[in-house]
Amino acid sequence: MFAATGAIVAEFVGANSGLGYLLLRATSYLDMPLIFAVLVALSAIGILFSYAVQCARAAVHAVVAQAMIASRRHDTDGQETP
User: Which of 26, 42, 52, 77 could be bridged to 31 by S-S, CB 3.0 to 4.6 A?
Assistant: First the structure.
């Protein structure tokens, strides 16, 4: 999440293209439709990244939980517990 924000801020400083550069250029010309379009695009990207991280976190959690359940089924002698 912070990587995307960092990339946009870096574009403000020294890029010749990208959404951050486009936003900076649009604000200097007071191009309100372009400003809002870029903000909507950046918001959509942020929401998609957040959703992707939540899905990945849930998948990892499910795999770890399944591994823990499987490891508890076996006791130290290798016998399955009821």
Answer: 26
